[in-house]
Fold:
Amino acid sequence: MPDAPGGEFWRELQPIKQVLRPNALPELFHAKVADADDKYFVPFSDTVSSRPLWISTQRNMWADVLMAKRAGLVNRHYHPHQIFAYTISGKWGYLEHDWTATAGDFIYEAPGESHTLVAYDSGAPMRVFFVVQGPLIWLDEQGNGVSHYDVFDYVAAAREHYDKVGIGAAYIDALIR
Structure:
């Protein structure tokens, strides 16, 4: 139930009675996603973790908050699909670009891009909301593909992590749409 209206012009409107069509899945609501307990953040590398917020196995997509509490690194990787990012806090960028993102910055990553994501030790944890489509292709130092990470790897890693920290592997099922 949303907050009760105060002086808003729409306060007399009544909610729609049939919100969801038959067979539709409900929305997801997560409060304060960037400030969640660390156990909700799945290790992504030795220095970076990810909190899954929404997952589509059919589309090979997910939305998450990527976090590094200190200087961090995500493997060199290639994106065959587009990626969207919004910086919540901290400082991060790609070794291959001349910009550095801070709170409030939006980044669109075009399909066909290879890069190395780094988090700076800026005094505030790096927290970035990402919408990832398709697999990440892990690259070696020369930029050659050596492995991949897709939505199925992400779900498996999250299940294992949530089971280990006591949340339970089934937690991830509520995020799949």
Summary: The chain is about 10% helix and 35% strand. Residues 73 and 118 are 5 Å apart (CA to CA). The first helix runs from residue 151 to 164.
